[in-house]
Amino acid sequence: MAGLPITYPLIGGLRYDFTAISFFANGTPIVGITKLDYDQELAPTDVYATMPQKIGATRGQLKPTATLTMLQLEYELFIVALCALNGTPGSGYMEVRWDMQVLYQDGAGLNQGPLFNHILRGCKIKKEKDARAPGGEANAVDLDLDLFYIQKNGQIPVTINPTKPFSFFPG
User: What global pTM score does this model have?
Assistant: First the structure.
C-alpha cells in the first residue's frame, strides 16, 4: 500500500466513509455495526538509575483496544453464532476469541479504489452494555473488546522474535 499516488485535489475520487467498510468475524460477514473505534499503543517504560535523567526505555507493552456498537437484532444473532463457534450452543459467547476483519474500499460500491485490510486479532467480548430510551432510534448494544493486536494491511505492530514462536493466529 505504500507509495500509492494521490493527485490533489482529489476530484474524481471519493474519501472513505462508513459505507465503504465491510466487517467479517472469522470470514463471516457481520452486518448491523453502526460504530467501531480501535487503537493500539506501544507503551514503553522509562528507565532511571542513579541519575536524574532517563537513561533508557523498555520496548514497551502493546495495548490494543476496540469498542463497537451493533444493532440489537444483529447482536442477538451474533452471540448465537459465537456460542456455536465455541462448540457450546446456548452458552459461552463471552469466552470465544475471533478475528474481526475490517475492509475499506472506495468506489461508490464499484470496488474501484485500493483495498485496505485491518484485522483485529483475537477479539473477545469483554463488556456489553444495553441501553434503551424512548424515540425513533433502533436499539443497539455497545461492546468493549479484548484483543491481541491490530494488523494493518498485512503489517503487524511489533517485531516477533523467531525464537519465541507466536502462532496464536497464523496468517
Answer: 0.80
Residue 165, pLDDT > 60, answer: no
Cα–Cα distances in Å, from 117 out to 24, 66, 104?
Answer: 11, 16, 7
Report pLDDT digits (tens) over 101-157: 998 876 555 656 778 899 999 999 999 999 888 888 899 999 999 999 999 999 999
Is the preceding omega at residue 9 within 30 degrees of 0, hence cis?
Answer: yes
Alpha-carbon distance 112 to 128, whole Å? 36
HSE (CB half, 13 Å, CA atoms) of 107? 10
Where along the chain do its domains lie?
18-48+55-152
Fold for the domain defined by 18-48+55-152: Pnp Oxidase; Chain A (2.30.110)
The C-alpha atoms of residue 156 and residue 169 are separated, in whole angstroms, by 12
